[in-house]
Recover the amino acids of this structure.
């Protein structure tokens, strides 16, 4: 039976069950374990939305690795160059490292693009991207999303770390906006 939930002023219906998410996360972990076993990667978990995905994923990643938690902040600098992107929380020296960006969802890719451009300035060896969800109809950037859990349509979803106005992150299943 469809269980509609209300978050603030909007109604959401069940979309992707936690067991389905778990399988997708498991296959990403297997891929990472086989492809990056000699890389000693550093996982950069992009907060807040990725916390649940990162936790599930990294429990299944069995290769030696480091994990760091970051936030992407954009602000308007005092120069004429406009918006400046800053990574908050990155204390490790990531030069010459394989970096795996851990995202909750890639939608337009604007966030990912900013993140990648900042990381490229830090002389990393290579950048890989893992995202629990991807909206292919919306994503038009050139950056490869190497590890995708589940592709979804261009719809607004919550749960599994994703929020609507700060709410819904704690839901274990993913819900989609109901008409
Ligand atoms: P992008 O920069 O357009 O790729 O969007 C990135 C960010 O927007 C994600 O990290 C999410 O925080 C947020 N976002 C995009 N789509 C959704 C959604 O369907 N539900 C909740 N948050 C979303």
């Amino acid at each position: 039976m469809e269980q509609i939930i209300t978050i603030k002023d909007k109604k959401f219906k069940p979309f992707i069950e936690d067991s389905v998410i778990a399988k997708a996360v498991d296959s990403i972990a297997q891929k990472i374990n086989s492809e990056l076993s000699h890389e000693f990667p550093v996982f950069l978990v992009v907060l807040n939305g990725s916390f649940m995905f990162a936790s599930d994923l990294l429990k299944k990643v069995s290769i030696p690795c480091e994990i760091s938690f970051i936030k992407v902040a954009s602000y308007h600098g005092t120069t004429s160059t406009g918006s400046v992107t800053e990574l908050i929380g990155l204390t490790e020296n990531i030069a010459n490292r394989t970096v795996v960006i851990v995202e909750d969802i890639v939608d337009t890719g604007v966030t990912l693009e900013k993140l990648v451009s900042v990381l490229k300035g830090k002389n990393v060896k290579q950048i890989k991207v893992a995202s629990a969800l991807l909206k292919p109809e919306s994503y038009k950037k050139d950056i490869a999303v190497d590890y995708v859990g589940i592709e979804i349509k261009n719809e607004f979803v919550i749960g599994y770390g994703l929020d609507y106005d700060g709410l819904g992150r704690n839901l274990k299943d993913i819900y989609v906006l109901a008409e």
Summary: The chain is about 20% helix and 35% strand. The mean pLDDT is 94. Strands lie at 5-7, 10-16, 42-46, 66-76, 83-88, 98-106, 126-134, 147-151, 157-158, 174-177.
